[in-house]
Amino acid sequence: MDITFNQLAKLVSFIDDIESQTYPEAPSFIHSDITGKVLDILLPKLPLNSKILDVGCGQGPALDIFKTKGYQSAVGIALNNEDVCICRKNGHNVSKMDQSFLEFSDASFDFVWARHVIEHSVFPYFTLSEFARVLASGGMLYLEVPAPETSCHHETNPNHYSVLGRGAWLSLLNRCGFNVNDDVRFGFTTPMGPDEYWGFICTKS
């Protein structure tokens, strides 16, 4: 398909507008707690020389754990300027970058950590294909998303664009060349009522 300059300009403008809707992501108890529990399970499977990409790293809760555990080749990306600055001040290697347009070479990483980021993508199929592109064959992806239509109604969050059902995520992961080896569910209660997150532990074919 041939893309005209005007079509490309519209897309760039649309993406720029979405970037303007980002907000700083300070660590919260529920997210930090789940991050710690999942990494306690996954990191024993990863050699210390593994190259790790933390997509949408926020202010660095996962990067802090990678560093503490001795992983020296962990890098993060975020779109919000404040998050990037805070991570850098804390000594982390973080770049401002869109998760759908990763500026890394093919097969650059052994592990892609992507918690609560893909729902911010307007084209998750494309974004997942980018995760697959930068992940080495046999590498691991951890993808975690909010479940739709819970008491928290994540689908109505102003910068959530892709809050999909479990079957849709499994299908997209499969189409992008991922094998889903295990999945986990985190249920908890918020002031709004019951909520749930889904985690997918995958390897690249």
Automatic annotation (TrEMBL):
InterPro entries xref list: SAM-dependent_MTases_sf
UniProt cross-references to SUPFAM superfamilies, sorted A to Z: S-adenosyl-L-methionine-dependent methyltransferases (SSF53335)
Sorted UniProt keywords: Methyltransferase, Transferase
Pfam family, one: Methyltransf_23
Single GO MF annotation: methyltransferase activity
GO biological process, one term: methylation
Protein name (record): Class I SAM-dependent methyltransferase
